[in-house]
């Protein structure tokens, strides 16, 4: 049988999902939960529900055939499958490419290796979340990523880069380009992250975590909001615009000054709740290649994704932004956004509400 072009397959999947949604709408009287699902994504369930199809019952309209997940502003798709999650997160900062200065030197293997004063981002998140009563473990060891049944409430990717989930070098042989005899599971980190999210885990991606991480893994692109970093202009002052009320924007003014790299996106993020943007007219220079996003340039957003929660922000380039008392313009607002965003991804604050 002739193989359909991928675009036709996607159109067919989308049509199937739309037809299923229409059938649900046209069927018998909906329960209050189902009516809420169709109207605004419902509410987060409090107990496990049987899985009988690829798309959770009542969520047909939210199925994304490109990433093969239910995603968007759809609380009813959340999976409360782990009942003993702790007030603890795992901070992951491994880089497999460019490394931001605020990360300091690469960390030793294992969990909670020694930190120095140069590990600015790591020290800040440990301190800031500690002030909120949340414990933090940290690592750059891909084998430490949470997976099936993990009790972490969230995993935080802080300025990771490139193939951060690949176990580099395990299968290398000096005398051969490819080792076909190894039993190494080189992409176990990807499996772990996907299974963690699917069981209701929280994900928070900060700065370069959506700025050049896992470029070629579609699942991660979807987790980031159906988008990827394309490029940025100069590190420069700009005006942040608070776009929506949310746990992670509470207490922020409508407009506030900050300094960053102001990432450009391709594709443009979709199916998310936009939280912060940048006023492009406040920027002195722009990218020489990407045309920018005009009057609506988002830099923070949230969504439900494949059973879990995902909250991301492009802010956080400058080490001074991570340093209390540095005098960095907008530092207090940035800190509040980061802490409350992580707390919401954990479920400690209302998520993407």
UniProtKB/TrEMBL annotation:
It holds the Pfam family ThuA. Residues 88-324 form the ThuA-like domain. SUPFAM superfamilies: Class I glutamine amidotransferase-like. Residues 1-28 form the signal peptide. The keyword Secreted does not apply. Residues 35-46 have a biased composition (Basic and acidic residues). Residues 29-59 are annotated as: Disordered. Gene3D superfamilies: 3.40.50.880. Keywords: Signal. InterPro entries: Class_I_gatase-like, TAT_signal, ThuA-like. Transmembrane segments: none annotated. PANTHER family: GALACTOSE-BINDING DOMAIN-LIKE SUPERFAMILY PROTEIN (PTHR40469:SF2), SECRETED GLYCOSYL HYDROLASE (PTHR40469). This is ThuA-like domain-containing protein. It comes from Actinoplanes regularis. The lineage of its organism: Bacteria, Bacillati, Actinomycetota, Actinomycetes, Micromonosporales.
């Amino acid at each position: 049988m002739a193989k359909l072009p991928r675009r036709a397959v996607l159109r067919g999947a989308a049509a199937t999902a739309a037809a299923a949604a229409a059938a649900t709408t046209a069927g018998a009287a909906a329960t209050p939960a189902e009516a809420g699902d169709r109207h605004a994504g419902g509410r987060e369930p409090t107990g496990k529900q049987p899985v009988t199809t690829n798309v959770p019952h009542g969520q047909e309209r939210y199925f994304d055939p490109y990433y093969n997940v239910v995603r968007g502003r759809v609380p009813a798709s959340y999976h409360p499958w782990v009942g003993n999650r702790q007030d603890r997160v795992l901070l992951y900062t491994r880089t497999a490419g460019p490394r931001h200065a605020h990360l300091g030197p690469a960390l030793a293997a294992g969990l909670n290796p020694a930190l120095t004063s140069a590990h600015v981002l790591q020290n800040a998140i440990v301190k800031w979340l500690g002030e909120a009563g949340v414990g933090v473990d940290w690592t750059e060891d891909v084998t430490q990523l949470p997976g099936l049944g993990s009790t972490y409430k969230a995993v935080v990717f802080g300025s990771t880069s490139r193939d951060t989930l690949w176990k580099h070098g395990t299968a290398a042989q000096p005398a051969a380009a490819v080792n076909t005899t190894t039993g190494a599971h080189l992409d176990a980190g990807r499996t772990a992250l996907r299974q963690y999210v699917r069981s209701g885990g929280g994900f928070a991606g900060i700065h370069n975590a959506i700025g050049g991480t896992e470029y070629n893994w579609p699942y991660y692109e979807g987790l980031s909001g159906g988008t990827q970093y394309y490029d940025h202009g100069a590190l420069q002052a700009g005006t942040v615009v608070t776009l929506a009320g949310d746990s992670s924007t509470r207490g922020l003014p409508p407009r506030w000054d900050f300094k960053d790299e102001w990432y450009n996106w391709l594709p443009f993020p979709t199916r998310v709740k936009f939280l912060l943007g940048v006023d492009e007219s406040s920027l002195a220079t722009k990218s020489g290649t990407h045309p920018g996003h005009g009057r609506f340039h988002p830099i923070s957003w949230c969504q439900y994704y494949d059973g879990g929660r995902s909250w991301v922000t492009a802010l956080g380039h400058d080490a001074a932004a991570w340093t209390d008392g540095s005098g960095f313009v907008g530092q207090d607002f940035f800190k509040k956004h980061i802490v409350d965003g992580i707390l919401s991804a954990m479920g400690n604050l209302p998520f993407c509400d």
